[in-house]
Specification:
This protein is an alpha/beta fold. The chain is built from 6 helices and 6 strands. The strands form 2 sheets. The protein has a 4-stranded mixed sheet, with helices on one face. It has a two-stranded parallel sheet with strand order 5-6. About 9% of the residues have low confidence. The protein starts with a helix and ends in a 5-residue tail after the last strand. Among the domains are: 77 residues; 60 residues, Photosystem II 12 kDa extrinsic protein (DNA polymerase, domain 1), CATH 1.10.150.320. The chain is elongated and about 100 Å long.
Amino acid sequence: MKKYLPVIIITICFASLLVFLIVRNVNRGLVEIPDEHELSAEVPSQMIKICIKGEINIPGIYEIEKDSILMDLIDKAGGLTQDAGKDINLVLVLDKNMTIYIRSKNEAGGIDISDNMDAIIQKDDEKILFENKIDINTASVDALCLLPGIGEKTAQAIIAYRMENGDFKIIEDIMDVPGIKTAKFEKIKDYITVCDKD
């Protein structure tokens, strides 16, 4: 033990000197210690688009933070109408590609995949509930993206096709758009229309 005593003493002295220098520099402001906010780097929140319709004061497509709850979206859309049903899961966590239809007190039936009695929640490739069919000759990218299986790239292709080739005459013409074949057409045919301009 005596043999290692000088090494131990030197180590302790060195450590003490190091601590002393750090403390002195901190007091002089030469060493900055980051506060808690700097240590925790903020991760930007991911925004998603959700469509809400039915018994809502301002129906439409809204951009909202991912993992927000249905209550946040309802607030953003001006709240529920007086006729809205009451059995709604307001803490439902929202995810991308959702369409939410708020039923009235008098409505019954419909597709309900969310365990809500008065809100129909649909997402991804499940059938979307539309109050009116989408006119593929006038629909925006956002509106086209609500169709089952249609993403932003395909929606842009639909718009580019109609700008280049003119209006679709019948709904089957949409299969001329690259990326839309029979299988995809079968998913969307009940939700699209071409309005007669005559």
